[in-house]
Amino acid sequence: xxxxxxxxxxxxxFLSFVLITTRGVTAGGDKDNGKELxxxxxxxxxxxxxxxxxxxxxxxxxDQWKAFFKNKFEAKHKDVILDREKKKxxxxxxxxxxxxxxxxxxxxxxxxxxxxxxxE
Length: 120
Fold this sequence. Notes:
- By secondary structure, this protein is mainly alpha-helical.
- It has a domain at 29-107.
- It is built from 6 helices and 4 strands.
- The protein has helices at 2-21, 34-41, 62-71, 73-77, 89-92, 95-107; strands at residues 25-26, 29-30, 81-82, 87-88.
- Strands 1-2 form a two-stranded antiparallel sheet. A two-stranded antiparallel sheet has the order 3-4.
- Helix 2 (34-41) packs across helix 6 and helix 3 (62-71) packs antiparallel against helix 6.
- The longest helix is centred in the N-terminal third of the chain and has 20 residues, at 2-21.
């Protein structure tokens, strides 16, 4: 009987962990899609004529994007609040989501094989 209780508790803990760590996945699709994450979380503050500067993946080269995410991203965004979430950007986005945004920016940078703005 103790083994059965242990199995039930372990299963419950595992399922709780899965639910917590997959909070970004919804019926609408994978939230780790870099393009969608960029549109939802970056573009809102970096559109044309924005006081924060207009940025699309084509705004920088691949090396510039890598350097930005490595050296400047956290410092530049530490106090940014997402209006819709009422949370700081860096508290809302997971590490995986930030990595997905970085991958999208690097993969579609000005010097990439598939340069892209976010509207495409």
